[in-house]
Amino acid sequence: MSAVDRLSVFKTYKLYVGGKFPRSESGRVYEVTDAKGKWLANAPLSSRKDARDAVVAARKAFGGWSGATAYNRGQILYRVAEMLEGRKAQFVHEVADAEGLSKSKAAEQVGATIDRWVWYAGWTDKIAQVVGGGNPVAGPYFNLSSPEPTGVVAVVAPQESSFLGLVSVVAPVIATGNTAIVIASERSPLPALSLGEVLATSDVPGGVVNVLSGRTAEIAAPLAAHQDVNAIDLAGADEALAKELEIAAADNLKRVLRPQPVDDWSATPGIDRMTAFLETKTVWHPTGSLGASGSSY
Amino acid sequence: MYSRYARRYARLVTMPTNAPSPTAERVGGTPSAHALADVTTSDSTLRRFLHGLPGVDAVGLEARAASLGTRSIKTTAKAYAIDLAISMVDLTTLEGADTPGKVRALGAKAVHPDPTDRTTPSTAAVCVYPDMVATAKAAVAGSGVKVASVATAFPAGRAALDVKLADVREAVAAGADEVDMVIDRGAFLAGKYLKVYDEIVAVREVCGTSARLKVIFETGELSTYDNIRRASWLGMLAGADFIKTSTGKVAVNATPANTLLMLEAVRDFRTQTGVQVGVKPAGGIRTSKDAIKFLVLVNETVGEDWLDNHWFRFGASSLLNDLLMQRQKLATGRYSGPDYVTVD
C-alpha cells in the first residue's frame, strides 16, 4: 500500500482522571482550533460531575502521594521530564498550533517546560530545609517546623501559555505533596490533555494530577465551592471569575492563590508557588531537664 | 452564590421514621397459620415444594435488575429517596474490635445522623453483636431507633442448636428489638431443608413476641439463583419477619439481582398467604446511587407497601456517610466531603 492510500488515525483527546482516560461524563465535546481558527481536534467539555469525580480521585491519591518520601517524589517528577523529552516533537507541534508560534519558538517553549519539571523535581527534597527547620526556643524542647502539603488543590491553568504556563502552576503543587485537579486552558487544552498521557506513563500515581478540559467558569465554580477541596490556584481566571471563585472558596476557608500578572513564564519562578500550598506544622518535643552544661546530652 | 439553593429541600425532610406500617404487624405468630402449612409437614413434602418452585432465568433476572438500575432519580425525588434510604439504614458494626465506646458513638449517630442538620431522619436501627445489645439499647434510649442483634453463631452459623438458641436468648433478654439469624448453609446445601426449617422455627419461638426475626441466607454461599429462591421460601415458611441477603463477611454480598429475586419471593408469598415479609440487602452497598437503585427495585417489584423501614432495610455502615454527603449537597448546592461526616 502506498503512503497516499493510508488513512491517518485521528487522536481522540480525553480527560485524565484517577489515572484513567475517560470521556466527559456529559458526553459533550467542543471544537479546539489553532490560533488562526483552523479546526485541530475535539476536546471533552467537562461537566461539574467530572469535577466531582476528579476530587474523589485526588482525595484518594493524597494519602499515598503526600506520604511518599520527598526524594521519591523528586525521582518521579524527574521521570516525567524524561518522558516529555521523548515526546518533544509532539508537544512542539501542539504548542505551535495552540499558540500560533513558529516551530523554533515552540521548541524553545517545550524545552523551557521540561527544564521547569526538572527544576521542581530538584526542589521536592529541599523545600523543607528552606521553609522549615529547628527553632530555638526558651525551654527544654526541640521545636521543629516542617512544611506539610495542604491537600487537594484545584488549579485554574493559565489561558495563554498552554504548556509552559500549565506546568509552571501544576508542578509546584504536586512537588510539595499535594494532589491537583487542573482545569486546562479553555482555548488550547490539547497540550494539557497530552500531558496526562505523559503522567500516566511516568510512575505518577493515578489521581495525583487530574486534567479537565472545557469551559473554565463552568468547571471552576463547583470546585471552588467543593467542601473537599483544600486550596485553589486562580492563575487562569479573569478578574470577574476570580472574584466569584474567591467568594465561593471562602465557605470552607480554602487557601486561595490570586491571579498575578506574569509577563514571562520562562523566568525563574522562585519558590512562592510551592509555599502557597504548604502549611507549617510545628512540633514541640521535650528533651528532658537540662544538665549543668545547658544541654541534656 | 449558592444561597438560593439553601434549604430548598427543607420541606421534604420531615419524613416520619420508624412509623408503624399500615399493614398489621405479625410478631410471634405461628408459621402454620397460612395456606402453605402442609408443605412443611415432612422433609419430603418440603423438598418437593422447594424443588417445585420455578427455576430462575438468570440472564433475565440480571437484565431486569440492570435495567431498573438505569432510572434517573433527580431533584425532589432524589431528596425523598435519600431521606427514605437514611431512614432504612441498619447502621451496623460487627467487628471483633467493637468497644462499648464505638457502639455508643454508633448509637448517637443512628439517632442524629447529621448533627449539623436536625431535620435528617434517624436510621431504622443499629445492628451489633449480642454482647453489645445492652450498650446499644442505652445509647438509643428514648428515640425510635431499634436495636438489632446478630445471633446464632454469626457469621458462620456453625454451632450446636442449643448454643445458637442461647445466643438468641441472651440477645432478646438484653433488649434486642430485632434478631438477625444466619441459616445453616451447610445443611441447606446438603439438601437437609427440614433441619434448616426447624432451626428457624426454634429461633422464632425464642424471639417470641418481643423481637422481629431476620433470616440471613448468605446468598454469596448459596451458589445459584435457584437456591436463593428456595432459601427465601424456606425462610418465609418458617416464619421470618425479614429475609436478608448476607452477613457482609463474604466476597459476594447484596447485589441488585439477588435482592430482586428475594423481592419477587416476598411478593409471591404475600399473594399466596397474605403474609407480608420484609427484605434487607446487606453488605457492599456503599453509595447513595446504589441505595437509590435498590429503592427503585423495591418500588417496581413489590410496590409502595414495602417502601417503609418496617419492611425494607439496608444493612450498611459506610453507606450512611455517602447519603449524608449527598443530602448536604442537595441542601447547600456545594459538594460535601468526608471532613463533614463522622469517621466510624
Automatic annotation (TrEMBL), chain A:
Residues making up the signal peptide according to the UniProt record: none
Keyword rRNA-binding: no
Residues in coiled coil: none
A single GO molecular function term of this UniProt record: oxidoreductase activity
Keywords: Oxidoreductase
Keyword Membrane set for record: no
Domain of life of the organism encoding this protein: Bacteria
Domain spans labelled Aldehyde dehydrogenase: 25-256
A Pfam family it matches: Aldedh
PANTHER family: ALDEHYDE DEHYDROGENASE-RELATED
Protein name: Aldehyde dehydrogenase
Source organism: Streptomyces aurantiogriseus
Origin organism lineage: Bacteria, Bacillati, Actinomycetota, Actinomycetes, Kitasatosporales
From TrEMBL, chain B:
Lyase is among the record's keywords: yes
BP term (GO), one: deoxyribonucleotide catabolic process
Pathway as given in its UniProt record: Carbohydrate degradation; 2-deoxy-D-ribose 1-phosphate degradation; D-glyceraldehyde 3-phosphate and acetaldehyde from 2-deoxy-alpha-D-ribose 1-phosphate: step 2/2
InterPro entries, per the entry: Aldolase_TIM, DeoC, DeoC/FbaB/LacD_aldolase
Domain of life: Bacteria
PANTHER family with a match to the protein in the record: DEOXYRIBOSE-PHOSPHATE ALDOLASE
Single GO molecular function: deoxyribose-phosphate aldolase activity
Gene Ontology cellular component annotations, sorted alphabetically: cytoplasm
Similarity annotation: Belongs to the DeoC/FbaB aldolase family. DeoC type 2 subfamily.
Catalytic activity: 2-deoxy-D-ribose 5-phosphate = D-glyceraldehyde 3-phosphate + acetaldehyde
Documented EC number(s): 4.1.2.4
Protein name as annotated: Deoxyribose-phosphate aldolase
UniProt keyword terms in alphabetical order: Lyase, Schiff base
